[in-house]
Amino acid sequence: MSTLPNPVAISQVDREKLLVLLRDSRERFQASFAGVNDEESRQRPAEGSWSVADCVEHVAAAETFMLRLLQGSRRPRPAGAPNREELFLQRMTDRSIHATSPEGARPTGRFGSLEAAGKQFEAARAETIRFVQETTDDLRATEVTHPHPLFGNVSAYELVIIMARHAERHVLQIDEIKQSPAFLAVKKS
Hints:
By secondary structure, the chain is mainly alpha-helical.
């Protein structure tokens, strides 16, 4: 937990905004792979692309890592640091912008099954929600000490937005995978 002085606590309005984002994206993410069996979950639309299982594993691993950043020590946000909350809210789900996953969040089969990856995501998201519910820190006034691989230094508030929107970005990817001929062929069999 943060050891920073708490001159201003997170407002109830800000807390509720983050909680709505986290809960809504959790439901959409879980619904995106509900009913997908193990064989279907491993189907890749093309060579080198990700499967549903890969996406769920990636989100679970990334969520777990970002949660640790939130729970760890944070530092005061420098005066004049850019506020990119609206940018993250609007652009994080834009699938026309491609990014390479950091090594630690790339799919490796670490959870063994779609179900296990989904459970890891749920555990991490539940803990993230609990963190937002219980923190007294002004999440806009602090930043995590480890730079985001794409966005550099981010406030704790921005990181929670990134976490929520990251899951939603992969909902769109899972929807694309489920419409691919490879997935549909296995679904029919």
